[in-house]
Task: structure prediction
Amino acid sequence: MTTPIDATRHIGILVFDQMEELDAVGPWEVFAWWAQHFQGDGWAVTTFSADGGPVTCEKTLVIQPHHSTATVPPLDVFLHPGGDGTRGMLEDASHLQWLREQRQHVPLMTSVCTGATVFAAAGLLHDRPATTNRTALDQLTRLDETIIVKPGQQYVDDGDIITAAGISAGIDMALHIVGRLTTLERSRQVRDGIEYYPEPASDGEYVPAADPRAGQPGYRERSPTEST
Result:
């Protein structure tokens, strides 16, 4: 069963020069696998850059996005990656204003890694809990002292804004989003489909942070000093 095109809900991943590859490609794999294998859920994922042109990531991967900011369909979920390219964005008034505008009509705004610092610079994290790459945690409060930093968490879900920690944490966040938008069982199906088992519990089964068993024997929460 497929969903009529006009009823499809959209997830958009912003791409830009000097973006960290896995910040975007990790969530892309989660969302794209979900959308292709469970078309009846009614979700699609796309990528876009400011002008629709290709971008060169931190490690030289070149990505040709599907859209520009002008042609991307109305979004239900927006994802802002991190990487060295975010540094200039912190003082890019037009980009920060564009983010504030997205905040007004996109139901769920999300970031991976230092994408959260751009959210902070735009004022989107004021008085909110958040996380980012472990090397940029202090930067969050330098940008906005009201932010409640949550070190050691793979992602922080604060309702209409979700921030993920560094790099690979975007995969965990994306699986959480699938579970939140559908069911926990669907999230597990996608996780199994992409064969993602980064932290086996004692029985060898990966237990995502969204799982009700989190905190039970066999589940280990990542510490603030561990690599993401």
Remarks:
- The domain at 5-193 is CATH 3.40.50.880 (Rossmann fold).
- The first strand starts at residue 9 and ends at 14.
- The chain has one domain: 5-193.
- The CA atoms of residues 160 and 180 lie 12 Å apart.
